Amino acid sequence: MDGITIRLEKENDYRAVEELTRNAFWNVYKPGADEHYFVHMMRNHPDFIPELAFVLEKDGEIVGNIMYTKAWLEDESGNRKEIVSFGPLCVAPSLQRQHLGKILIEHSFEVVKKMGYDVNINFGNPGNYVSRGFVSCKKKNVSCFQKGNFPTALLVCELIPGALDGHEWMFIPSTAADCCDDVEAVEEFDKQFAPKEKKWMPSQEEFYIYRHSSVVR
Ligand SMILES: CC(C)(COP(=O)(O)OP(=O)(O)OC[C@H]1O[C@@H](n2cnc3c(N)ncnc32)[C@H](O)[C@@H]1OP(=O)(O)O)[C@@H](O)C(=O)NCCC(=O)NCCS
Prior knowledge:
By secondary structure, this protein is of the alpha+beta class. The protein is built from 6 helices and 9 strands. It has one domain: Gcn5-related N-acetyltransferase (GNAT) (Aminopeptidase). Strands 1, 2, 3, 4, 7 and 9 form a 6-stranded mixed sheet that branches. A 3-stranded antiparallel sheet has the order 5-8-6, with no helix packed on it. The relative contact order is 0.18. Bound molecules: coenzyme A. The site of coenzyme A has 18 residues, from α1, β4, α3 and α4.
């Protein structure tokens, strides 16, 4: 697509990125959204990686973004490996399904690799990621919450093939998203934005199914 630039987020982009995030996530996973609050808070979290906070501009307007935090994997001997985890990732609703999300993932993964990381793991709707080389955490022996639990939505992308071979891993996410547990703070923050109707959408049920299921065989 013509007229596209990807660059690092700057401080004066913060509000535009939060607006974009709110619009892209609104009613998708729950009535309303909290991802714009997550974006707002994560920039001050110690696990946030500013070198991987990218915005995608089309004709000078921010229409996509991706942000990362550190996360960890612990092997069967208790050794920890630092990895990355992206999210939120979003594209303006009117421009979705035109591969802008793919471009953001591929661009940022090149930088992730140059920084020396070899694995990205994040929760997500598998439909968005399986064509980007992501596989079920079960295939890479990555448990979450407890040994032998392989959440359906936990997706692993080895940036160096074989990086996780030979071990059993436990995924340890960043605590950056915990801020969204504070529902009152989310509501208060949301008042800074234009009113928007909260409603049910089928994608919320899809998300419920992914969120509450695991791969067992
Ligand atoms: C998820 C999101 C970032 C993807 O970005 P995008 O630019 O729309 O996605 P892309 O065009 O790069 O396509 C991603 C993949 O989705 C799938 N896809 C494409 N069109 C689809 C459709 N109509 N329905 C379902 N899946 C589709 C495909 O697997 C596609 O990859 P492929 O065409 O190479 O096979 C974007 O849709 C978005 O912002 N959604 C709302 C916020 C969100 O859910 N963020 C992710 C949190 S997990």
